[in-house]
Amino acid sequence: MAGKIIINIERCKGCGLCIMACPKSCIIVSEKSNKNGFFPAQADSTDCTGCGACAIICPEAIIEVFHNQCSKIETIAEPDKKPKLSLIKEKV
Ligand code: SF4
Ligand code: SF4
Hints:
Elements: E1 3-7, H1 17-21, E2 27-29, E3 41-43, H2 53-57, E4 63-67
Antiparallel strand pairs: 1-4, 2-3
One iron/sulfur cluster binds near residues 60 and 63.
């Protein structure tokens, strides 16, 4: 496993965007609802590469991305902070 993610499931709205974005199919829908009644995304990080696509697309910014299982070397998106989208800026 090259990467790992942690999802704050209590804040998840169950939109499924992270599931669609993951190139390794590492995220599934939980069978158990959270306290707000949403069925949250659930990580199965077996094939996770730590690419960060799920964290970048999550509108709630509730996915943290880790590399090498335990060593957190990069956080793509931190809880309560929206990911930076500066690369999308266009030159006029
Ligand atoms: S970091 Fe990349 S490979 Fe890992 S769960 Fe997220 S989208 Fe999938
Ligand atoms: S993109 Fe974010 S809010 Fe949507 S299902 Fe994934 S973790 Fe939940």
